[in-house]
Amino acid sequence: MNWNRLIFALALSVSCIVQAAEIKVASQEEYQAALLNLEPGDTMVLANGEWRDFEIRFTGVGTPDQPITLRAETKGQVVISGESNLRLSGEHLLVTGLVFRNGHTPTNEVIAFRISNDELANHSRVTEVVIDHYNNPERFERDYWVIMYGRHNRFDHNYLVGKSNAGVTMAVRLNSPESQENYHRIDHNYFGHRPILGSNGGETLRIGTSKYSLTVSGTTVENNFFERCNGEVEIISSKSGSNVFRGNVFLESRGTLTLRHGNDNLIENNIFLGNSKGHTGGIRVINKRQTVRNNYLSGLTGHRFGGGLVIMNGVPDSPINRYHQVEDSRVENNTIIDVHHIELAAGSDQERSAVPVRTTFSGNLIVNTEKRDSIAVHDDISGIAFSGNIADGVAKLPSDSGFEQRGVKLAQADNGLLHPEASSLASVGVARDLKVLQRSDTGPSWYPKPDYSEVFDSGNVLQVPPGQDTLTEALEKAGAGDVLQLQGGDYTVSKLLVTDRAITVRGPAEGPPPTIQFERTTLFELADGGSLKLERLAIDGTLAPDAYGNSVVRTSRYSMLSNYQLVVSGVDVTNLNTNHSFNFLKVSKHTFARSIEISNSSFSDVSGHVIALDREIDDLGIYNAEYINVLNSSFTNIGGAAVNIYRGGTDESTFGPQVVLKGSRLENVGANKRNKTRSSVFLLGVQRTRIDDNEFIDSKPVKVVHTVGDPVTKIGSNRLESTPSASVVDISEYLR
Ligand code: CA
Fold first, then answer.
1. I need a labelling partner for 710 at 20 to 30 A (CA). Which of 151, 298, 303, 704 fits?
2. Model pLDDT for residues 59-90, shown as the tens digit of each residue
3. Radius of gyration of the chain (CA)
4. How far is the CA of 651 from the centre of ligand 1 (A)?
5. How far is the CA of 115 from the centre of ligand 1 (A)?
6. Nearest residue to 560 via CA among 254, 195, 253
7. How far, in Å, is the centroid of ligand 1 from the Cα of 200?
8. Among candidates 138, 149, 169, 305, which has minimal Cα distance to 219?
């Protein structure tokens, strides 16, 4: 080859790059070098493999026809891990195919449509990107997964699952003029499980903040699938104007789509399916000129602000961050089936006294398959005009006119939705052609969606013979969902049994239960990811060290991201008294149980508490467990409380804790002088309590302290013998 030919060849290749180059990079250095030369139409390709600690700054100016692209060599095979993030600035950028996993962002967000305050992204798109459990290990270290800034950006076909630390999963910010009237599109995303946070700050999507809420955002949230988005009371918090929420599915998600601040928003063609799961909600309306039409709401159990359909009262001349009055709003042609609570003029109190005005409620279909008093009126609703609504099975209608109460026979359409059979009702409720978005239409097609099957007993059964540390050895081999099957006989454990997965330890169905004794300060420790089910066992604390603060089960001493489950069934626990403050369950700050279920079990001679969920003492509305159920069990000679729960603070963003104590016997419970609760059952800040059909003998009283919200406490028929009666008091009285 002569020199001329070589120069000609180089020039040719350079001109090719200018037209549209594809540049593959395999290291962060190569990425940085290549970034400087990107032209419109160019594509940067990240080589397959793991990219650790990679703070991606993706900048450039493309054109509508020739965007600048950053993509994975193979979609799904580029994993961004460690302390990594993605920030974009410029015009017409496109990012696709990346997976964020095994790490967390070192900054405030995993994906930001800006690099700095004045370097924003516009007309840019992030599509088919995965963020999978990419959490800061400290539960209450707050960050976001996605924040959209700039204007005319699109976020679509992405997968966001398992955000477990504090902070909204995704937000749209309007904090400068360059990010207002943004007309972003958020579509076809899969917003999967967001576990209960047990605090404010667990929203899945927020658009705006109260400060800029009278500004137009114009964001469209369309055809997204929200599944088990259970972080807190708001699934979506709309805090700006002229947003559209259309064609989304909310499946078994706790909380509501809330028009919290801002005007002129539209909610249409959405489907809310609660499947009767606890605290599933629908739509909450606040502010002016809101339209809620053609939505299908079914099987929603939530109440109060978390109800199926909620129209709020406002605050007269409301400050920007409180509640603006509902004015000129429309709720029409919605189908509402087996929705437990519709709340009108909700939140009415001395402060929230401005009732809804010039608002219409028309053409809605409300059917309860079991008759139910499902519509609650909390204030004057003469400002809501009712017309053309059909109701069946509603015990009490909110208005004498505007409703026809009649039998409605429903038939199921091919897409699973129920519609009235009668053709005379064709114009009531949702349109018959309402489309049902499928899970598979959302997220990237190449990344599997989570399997939400039960965690326990799904794996293998491992036989464990009696003896010293046979249990320890078996646990080391056990995988998630496995069962350790014990025989009759004695088991001694000389090491901590630490599990970061769901494990069942089970005695035989027949004969006396196996006895487990342990020589360390605890028998089981739940590490992050761990859950434990104990069945048909005898646990004896005699061999535990002569030191205070022992336990049978404890959580990690550090913050846990995963919510654990503890099931104790048919277990006899005794001799937890080698020293003081020996608990059955002992938890640490910033750990959270999704559920604790104790049944058909006995606890005797315990120096501390049986279930102690009292480590969140900062009064920030944070707590240690959601559901605590104690059924048909006995507690005898317990120094502390059988159940001790503390949830302080006035924040109203959570549904729990919730406690049931039923069919149980408590004798000589709570008398130890170290028991500061001075009660046999101490429940502070619990939102739902049911204490029924129990016996209390020679015990300290039950104490329930209400702190915030509308706590429901039902103390039914219990037999008391030499035990003071239960007290239910407000926090102010308690602190007095
Ligand atoms: Ca909130």
1. 298
2. 999 999 999 999 999 999 999 999 999 999 99
3. 29
4. 9
5. 26
6. 195
7. 5
8. 149
